[in-house]
Write a structure and sequence with these properties.
The protein has 206 residues and is mainly α. The protein has one domain. The chain has nine helices and no strands. Helix 3 runs antiparallel to helix 4 and helix 4 runs antiparallel to helix 8.
């Protein structure tokens, strides 16, 4: 039996409340542990809808709300404790005060579209709310792009899984290709950010 079928069978045997709690937890933890993708849990929920073990709107609302609320919590913690962390030696090593100033200028100008687009990219989803908080970007400029982007993405995933019928493996393969492309984009952006970090760090030292 394929691994996907085994996982669906294991989840489908659980009580509905436990299913939704696990899906919500999986969608929320991505903002704390980026390697754990919330997309996987959204797709899993959509496949459970096809099997009759879950309701589509409930899966969407549970995963969407869990993900954006955890993103807002991360933003709030970064806003409250960011200065203290980056004032310490390790924080100072990660980002020089001048680098933080440049990030703040970037967020002040491009914060809303940057947050919106980042919610579609693996790893960046977790990073952008953190720095939005550290740079004290107003919550009003964070709440809408996070909610809208996550809603569009998770809504599309739920609909994809639901209307795919029993072709679970076809959807998984297609999503793997899409996710690989998004990872490539994220990798290019990460490389660019790494170059900016190195160059700005070197410039500030001199």
């Amino acid at each position: 039996m394929p691994v996907t079928d085994q996982i669906l069978g294991a989840f489908g045997s659980l009580p509905p409340l436990i299913i939704y709690l696990l899906l919500g937890a999986g969608a929320a933890v991505e903002n704390v542990i980026p390697p754990i993708p919330a997309d996987t849990f959204v797709l899993l929920g959509s496949f459970l809808v096809v099997r009759g073990d879950a309701q589509a709107w409930t899966v969407f609302l549970v995963t969407w709300l869990a993900n954006i609320i955890s993103a807002y919590i991360v933003y709030g913690l970064a806003r409250k404790y960011g200065d203290a962390f980056f004032g310490r030696p390790i924080g100072h090593w990660l980002l020089h005060p001048k680098q933080l100033e440049q990030i703040g200028l970037f967020y002040d100008k491009w914060g809303v579209p940057a947050i919106f687009l980042s919610r579609f990219l693996p790893a960046f989803r977790a990073m952008v709310p953190v720095f939005a908080g550290v740079t004290k970007l107003p919550f009003g400029r964070v709440v809408l792009p996070v909610a809208l982007a996550s809603g569009l993405w998770y809504g599309a995933l739920v609909m994809l899984g639901r209307f795919a019928g029993e072709n679970v493996h076809v959807v998984v393969n297609a999503f793997s290709h899409v996710n690989t492309a998004l990872l490539v984009v994220a990798g290019v952006l990460a490389a660019g950010l790494g170059y900016w970090w190195w160059r700005s760090r070197h410039r500030h030292r001199h």
